Structures are given as C-alpha cells and as structure tokens.
Input
Amino acid sequence: MTKSISIFGATGSVGQSTLDLVRQHPDQYNIIALTANGNATQLAALAKEFSAQVAIVADDSAYAELKQQLSGTSIEAASGPEALIAAAALGADWTMAAIVGCAGLPPTLEALRCGKTVALANKEALVSAGALMITEARKAGATLLPVDSEHNAIFQALQGGRIDQVRKITLTASGGPFRTWTREQMANVTPEQAVAHPNWDMGAKISVDSATMMNKGLELIEAHHLFPVGLENIEILVHPQSVIHSMVEYRDRSTLAQLGSPDMRIPIANTLAWPDRMITNCEPLNLADIGRLDFELPDESRFPATRIARAAIMADGAKPAMLNAANEVAVAAFLNRAVQFLDITEIVTRLLDSYSPPEPSELADIFAIDKETRVRTEQLVEELKV
Ligand code: NAD
Ligand code: MG
Output
C-alpha cells in the first residue's frame, strides 16, 4: 500500500532530506503537494521528478515561472498563502511541515485539521501557536510526529514508558559554532561563520538560531507543548558531538536515550515510516570512531537565549509568539548584515520588554501579535543598524 504525502518547504534542507528518503523507496509513496517559497525552477524540477499532483509557490511573483516550467505536464501550479492552505486541505496521509518560520503555521494547522499525520519540523509554528495547534490536533484526531532531532529522540524514548512516569527530559544541544567563544569574540562574527554549524547541515535561519542558542530556547518551548511534563522537568545539556539526541529519565531512574549520526534523514525516516521502520542508507553510528561523548551545562551568561525563551513560556500569553517573531526579524537582519550577532538576543529582549499585548485566543490574535511584533522589531533593528 502506498502512502500519499505532501511536503511543505520541499526545496529546503528538511524538505530535500525527506525527498531523499522517498527516492530510496519510490514505490511506497505518492506525492500530492510540494511547496516552496519562490524558487520555481527547483520546485518544478522536484514536482516533475516525483510526479506531484500540485506544486505551489508561496510567492505570487514566482507563479508565471512555475506555470511555464510545468507546461506540458499534468502537474497543477498554484501560488500564494491561500493555495498553500488549500494544498494542506487535500489531506495527504502524511504531511511534512518544513516551511521555516511562522509562515508555516496556516498550512500546518490546516493539515492537522484534516486529522491525518503531520510530521512537524516547523518549530516556529509551535512556538507561536502551540496551545492552538495541540487543541486542533486533538479535536481532529490528528497524529503529530516530531521531526526535530531532539523531540524525535524524546518521542522514541517515550515508547519505553508513559508520560506520567517521566521524571525528567534532557534536551541535548551541540552548543553551536561558538560554544567555547567569549562574548567579546562573538561580537564580530559574520553570517558565514554563524551558519557554519559544526555537526549539522541546515537552512540559514536555524543555523543562526543554533549559534545564538535560540534554537534550544525554541526547542524548550516546543518540548513543553509536545511533552507536558512541566517546564521545570525539562533541562538542557550541552553535548558537542550531537550523538545523543535527547533523553528521558523515568521515575525508577532509568534513562532512555536515542542515538544516531547527526543526519536529519534519521528522525525524518522515523516519522515517515511510523509506526513501521524503514531501511535508510544513512551513516551508521560508529561509537568506537567517535571515541568519547562530552557533556557540559549551558552557560546562559554567554548565551542568554535559553533564559529568554524560558521566561517567555513561563509568562505565556502573547510572549512566545512575540519571541518568535522578534527572533525571525533579528536573524534576518543579522543575515543581511544590518545588525551584529550579539544584537539578535538583545533585540529580542528589548522587544519582549517593550509591550504586552493581550493573551491570544484564536489564530487571528496570533497573526496580529506576529505582525505588530515584526513592525516593532524592524524599528529596533533601525536603531541598532551598523
Ligand atoms: P530552509 O531554509 O532550508 O527551507 C525552508 C523551506 O521553506 C524552503 O522550501 C523555502 O522555500 C520555504 N519557505 C521559506 N519561507 C517561506 C514562506 N514565507 N512561505 C512559504 N514557504 C517558505 O529551512 P530548513 O533548515 O529546512 O528548516 C525548515 C524548518 O525545519 C524550520 O522550522 C527549522 O527550524 C526546522 N528544522 C530544521 C532542521 C534542519 O536540519 N534543517 C532540523 C530541525 C528542525
Ligand atoms: Mg533540533
């Protein structure tokens, strides 16, 4: 039996890794929708290779190019945010949510509302609208499978017990490229240095998040929504080799961990084949070669992002959505060389302290908070511009 699948963010790092797994098992999957932001050429090539039913670009200005590239095929071309939602509503058996940023929230939510299986890489959606997403998933009877390597590790370790038997969850963190650097050394890092992650090959935004450790802050919020064990029972441990992807300690003091080479195709494969396991050609883990595994506590004086994120989720209300939007804008400004590396967390802190919108109760509230935060953060960026 083949599984029908859709991939949102098909041209990105996670999207490509997903398609690589499909390439290894072509007879087991049929592709409904593939989406991209604006790269029509790359999307059209993938849509043709995988005989997708529809290909969607989020950016309307890329539509003509997509349409032209798909002419002579039976693949439908579409564009714009509404088309993304419509594609999610087609109800694939399995949907990969791998758009980067809060832009992925509407199609991800729509896919959950179909009540099928959603593999979630798009952590920003969960950070901004976690409660809403979990409620909608429950209501529709959808299955939400975590793709983020740490959360996928926890998901796998939780198959060894029940959530109410958990004493503690340990989220591991590589520490990023500047793990051993002083604040002074970090002051002048370039976007090129920040995106060069020591272990993982990822998109630019998440690579910068890893360098500031905001990625771990976002993941703390993500874990809090996915695994309700109490925020005080989720801790962060720096583990530079990225071999242990996270751990669950049960009340009997047994700790279960998931290990693997740092290759996103491994957690993606877990969600793609779930509840089965698929064969992959990923590198096997060779612990004798690695030799040793190191651990250290996070240093929040050099990397304040995890402290900021913890405070945001404890305050709850509008703060997590504000944190995410401010971080998205600040990271983009850093990548455009408008602000310095250390300004990213500084901007997020200032934004969070600058205003307090009322608690969101529906999706429209989240979008309003997201929009206003972006405008206000752009102003902060202007003030700090280098
Ligand atoms: P990426 O930048 O490589 O790819 C992003 C994808 O989203 C692309 O297909 C792009 O075209 C699309 N996109 C970008 N902006 C869009 C918009 N406004 N509207 C619609 N589509 C848009 O990113 P990535 O590294 O693949 O990360 C994707 C998501 O997965 C992120 O949320 C990230 O945090 C998460 N994640 C990634 C990794 C990784 O190893 N790359 C690991 C864990 C989690
Ligand atoms: Mg991760």
Summary: The mean pLDDT is 97. The pocket of nicotinamide-adenine-dinucleotide (ligand 1) is lined by residues 9-15, 36-37, 58, 98-101, 103, 121-124, 148, 200, 202-203, 205-206, 264 (CB under 6 Å).
